[in-house]
Design goal:
It contains 5 helices and 17 strands. It is of the alpha+beta class and 344 residues long. Helix 2 packs parallel to helix 4. About 3% of the residues have low confidence.
Length: 344
């Protein structure tokens, strides 16, 4: 009986202890419940602060850094460049470019002002780049009437274009990106663009020469005094179309000037250009060369740019470029001289 009594007593103690724990737990649960009911707003604030602490560096540091990285990794290729309506202080420029990106993000790039320059030099002009939705491959068309930021820099640029097989142009600006509901992100737009140049006009040739003489008849001298006409073939390996105006070039043999050539209203297009030319030459001096040093009538001719004029105004940026380039050409004048009866 004593053993049974002890067992019952122990069971009662254990039961009391369990009841005490339940009471304590209920009290604690009640406190927590009352706390949550009274201070739920404080808990939300704390949770919001924790979330902001995590998200702010992502939104304002990590994502903009990723955006700048992806923009830097993208490429820009000029597929067409048209320079028209030239004047001494400006041009009409149309640039068609293709931007390529491997990024999985496709933000909208806001419109911005970009400077174009030769590496290591100040911009020669600025263009307004329109707002663009970036995709894996995006065509961007820039078309502006522009005034030169620096005429000297634009002169140097055209010399590089004339004398180079390929060259590099920098495009630099600052803009903002928009991606979904995220805040606008400030980025630097810096692109290095490699383009084909005019390669010194290598491959230029003159054909279909015809000597003009007299004041009447089918072969009379032109009103400006031109006494030689023909076709000039000028290769243009670049994607550039250039309105050069009226272009004149000096002709020389063995360092002696023999005359000038005019290409009127010359628009140099991509690919091979065949255009009419008219020249004023010293026929007597040419005949002298044929009679002495070059009896085969093939004359080693040096052609150097002289002037580029549009609407009566000199385009010094083109003039400096064509003056910097000398073209060596073996010019066969035999057929033209024979047709004119000047040689047998």
């Amino acid at each position: 009986m004593e053993h049974k009594a002890d067992h019952l007593a122990a069971h009662e103690v254990a039961s009391n202890r369990s009841s005490d724990r339940e009471v304590v737990q209920r009290k604690r649960g009640g406190k927590v419940s009352r706390h949550c009911k009274r201070f739920w707003w404080l808990d939300l604030i704390i949770l919001a602060i924790v979330i902001l602490i995590i998200l702010i560096p992502i939104i304002f540091v990590a994502i903009p850094k990723k955006a700048q990285h992806d923009l830097n990794q993208s490429t820009l290729e000029v597929t067409s460049q048209e320079v028209t309506s030239p004047s001494p202080n400006g041009i009409h420029l149309k640039l068609v470019t293709t931007a390529k990106s491997s990024s999985k993000f496709h933000p909208t790039i806001e419109a911005f002002r970009a400077g174009l320059s030769i590496e290591g030099k100040e911009p020669f002009l600025y263009v307004n780049v329109p707002e663009t939705k970036a995709e894996a491959e995006t065509e961007i068309v820039v078309e502006n009437d522009v005034t030169f930021a620096s005429l000297d820099q634009f002169i140097d640029y055209n010399k590089v274009v004339m004398g180079s097989e390929s060259f590099v142009v920098n495009m630099d600006g600052k803009t903002k990106l928009k991606l979904g509901g995220l805040p606008r992100m400030s980025v630097n737009y810096n692109k290095i663009i490699t383009m084909k140049g005019l390669n010194k006009l290598n491959g230029l040739n003159i054909t279909d020469l015809k000597i003009l003489q007299g004041l009447t008849g089918e072969n009379k001298t032109l009103s400006d005094g031109s006494n030689l006409i023909g076709k000039i073939i000028i290769p243009n390996p670049s994607v550039m179309l250039l309105d050069l105006g009226n272009v004149t070039m000096n002709l020389a043999i063995d360092g002696k000037a023999i005359g000038t050539t005019l290409i009127p209203n010359f628009i140099l297009k991509p690919g091979n250009n065949t255009v009419s030319m008219q020249s004023t030459v010293n026929k007597a001096l040419i005949f002298q060369f044929i009679s002495t040093n070059y009896t085969d009538a093939i004359l080693p001719t040096d052609i150097v740019g002289n002037s580029s004029i549009a609407n009566g105004e000199h385009l010094t940026y083109y003039e400096n470029a064509i003056k910097s380039n000398t073209i060596h050409l073996d010019l066969n004048v035999g057929p033209a001289m024979k047709a004119a009866g000047l040689i047998q």
